[in-house]
Amino acid sequence: MxxxxxxxxxxxxxxxxxxxxxxFDGAAPRVSFEFFPPxxxxxxxxxxxxxxxxxxxxxxxxxxxxxxxxxxxxxxxATVRRIRNETALEPAAHLTCVAASCEEIDRVARDxxxxxxxxxVALRGDPPGGLGSDYAPHPGGYAYAADLVAGLKRVAxxxxxxxxxxxxxxxxxxxxxxxxxxxxxxxxxASRAITQFFFDVxxxxxxxxxxxxxxxxxxxxxxxxxxxxxxxxxxxxAGCGASIPGWMAAHxxxxxxxxxxxxLVAASLAAEQCRRLHANGVHEFHFYTLNRADLIVAICHLxxxxxxxxxxxxx
Length: 315
Ligand SMILES: Cc1cc2nc3c(=O)[nH]c(=O)nc-3n(C[C@H](O)[C@H](O)[C@H](O)COP(=O)(O)OP(=O)(O)OC[C@H]3O[C@@H](n4cnc5c(N)ncnc54)[C@H](O)[C@@H]3O)c2cc1C
What we know:
The chain is of the alpha/beta class. The protein has one domain (3-309): Alpha-Beta Barrel (TIM Barrel), CATH 3.20.20. It has helices at 3-9, 41-55, 73-86, 102-114, 145-155, 175-187, 201-213, 230-240, 246-252, 259-279, 294-303, 308-314; strands at 30-35, 61-64, 91-96, 119-123, 159-164, 192-197, 220-224, 284-288. The protein has an 8-stranded parallel beta barrel with strand order 1-2-3-4-5-6-7-8, surrounded by 4 helices. The radius of gyration is 19 Å and the shape is globular. Flavin-adenine dinucleotide is lined by residues 65-66, 68, 94, 96, 121, 123-126, 131, 144-146, 163, 169, 171-172, 177-178, 181, 185, 194, 196, 223.
C-alpha cells in the first residue's frame, strides 16, 4: 500500500506534501521522551541539562528506564521523583517483573503513587542472562507484563503504558501469540503501547493494521531511535530482534570516523521516518533520547514540535 492510500485509510491523517513542516497539517504531533537513570554525578548533571532543554518542548510525558533485573531501582526512583519535584513534566517510571516478588513491586508502586507519580511503563524485563537465556518468573513474582499491569491497577489507578513489537518479541511463540499478549496487557488496564525501535516504516504500518484487526484501539506509539553510532546499533538490534535495513547500513558506510556527519545523517533519517509515519496517520512519537538533547530538538523542530517562543516566531 502506498503512503497516500494508507493515509486515506488511517483513522486520523496528515496532509501529504513535499514540505516537511506542511506535512504536519498545522498541528504538531505529541511527543514523549525516554531517559535512562544516570550512573555518576557528572552524568546526572548532563542529564539535567538535557531534561531542562527538552522540557521547553512540552512533551506529553517523559519516562525513565529500569535497569535489567532492577539494577537501577534506586537511581530510577530518584530520577523520576526529581522530575516530579523540580519540573513541570509528567514523569513515567518504567517497572519490570524480574527479580522481585509481587509484594516488593506493589510497595514500589505504592511509593510512586504517594510521591505523585501517576504513570508506569509496565514491562516483564529480560532474564538476568539477557534475552538469549531462558526466562523464569521470580517465585512469588508477576510472571509477565500483563500480570504486572493487573497488579498495578490493584494498587492504584495508574496510567499504564506497555511495550509492543512490530517485528514480534524475539522469544514469542508466534507473532499471533505476541499480538494476543499485547491485547492481554491492554485488557488488563494499559492505555497505550510504545513500540520497540524499528526503521522500516512499512513494518510498523503492517503491525498497526494487524493490531487494529485484532480489535486494538489504543495508540501504538512508535518508538524512535535516532542512530548516531552504527556499531552500537548493531549490538542493540541483535539483542532485541529489531532489524536494520540494508539501506541504513549504506547511509552510514564510511562515516565511522566522522561523528559530525553521522549526526546530520541520523537527524535526517529519523525526521524522514517520522514524516512518513505522520503522513500515515501517526500523531504521537516516543523518542529514545539516550540522554542527549541535540538530535531530539532538531527532529522535533522539523516535526513542528517547538518551544513556545520558536513556535510564536514561526506563526
Ligand atoms: C518501550 C520499551 C521500554 C522498555 N523499557 C525497559 C526497561 O526500562 N527495563 C528493562 O529491563 N527492559 C525494558 N524493555 C525491554 C523489555 O523488558 C523486554 O523486551 C522484555 O524481554 C519483554 O518485556 P515485555 O514487557 O514486552 O514482556 P511481555 O509482554 O510479558 O512479553 C514477553 C514475552 O513473553 C511472551 N508471553 C507473554 N505472556 C506469556 C504467557 N502467559 N505465556 C507464555 N509467553 C508469554 C510474549 O509473547 C513475549 O515473547 C523495554 C522495551 C520497550 C519496547
